[in-house]
Amino acid sequence: MNNKKITSNVSEKDKVLLCVLGSILVLAVAYIIVFSPLQKKSAVLAEDNEGLRSYITVLDNMRENEETKKAEIVEYNEKRDEMLSHFSKIITNENVVEIMDKLETETNFFTSQNTIVLNDLVFSQEDSRNNGDVDIDTSEDEIVDSEYKPEVNKELLQEYGDIITERNCVTVAYSCSYQELVDAINYINSFSSKMSVDNVVIGFDTETGKLKGTMDINIYSVDAGIDADKVPDYQGGDYNGVNYGISSNIFGSREGSSKKKK
Can you give the three-state secondary structure of 205-250, one letter per residue? Predict the structure, then answer.
């Protein structure tokens, strides 16, 4: 059997070129498989490090202001509790009748008609927060959204229920002297449960020489959620009942037209 010698027609120049191309291919594969992922990871780590540095700065500032913030929280809690003490939990129709009877008895502010509307929502802390009506400090939002969250000292935090405030409105038709009107306004302003006056209409009665008109008297009640015990129950005072009235003398405050309820 004859052995034939295999010869190659590849020149030395082509061999060198193939070696160069092979090296380039190896480097490209190495870049795609090794170097590129490492670069991406390095960029992510650099971004994380920057975030950590910013977070550490925020924590340092928080540590420096810790005592100030504690004092502000205590002050806020005290003011909130004091504010809640000026409202009542629930106002009923009976409470409103009792209040109007006492108003007429104490000030001689005579009312011939009372229209009562209860539980008109005037403020919801949750709704205000959701609607952006409440000015909230967002300087530490990055901490809330960050994956790096500090340990919270729960003993320093006191959770509060969202406040819901309702208006119980009494629209009255009244007749009184100027001084009696002043006395009625002063009585409303100093009442134990928060009250206010709206939509006052004042006219002059030429037959009696007194003032007459209409006004809305608002009596407020508060639902403070888990803080309900901080809002006092309505205290009506010492009542033996409300006068029975007739016709336009609804509380029987005019002579000869009523008798006391038993």
Answer: ECCCCEEEEEEEEEEEEEECHHHHHHCCCCCCCCCCCCCECECCEC
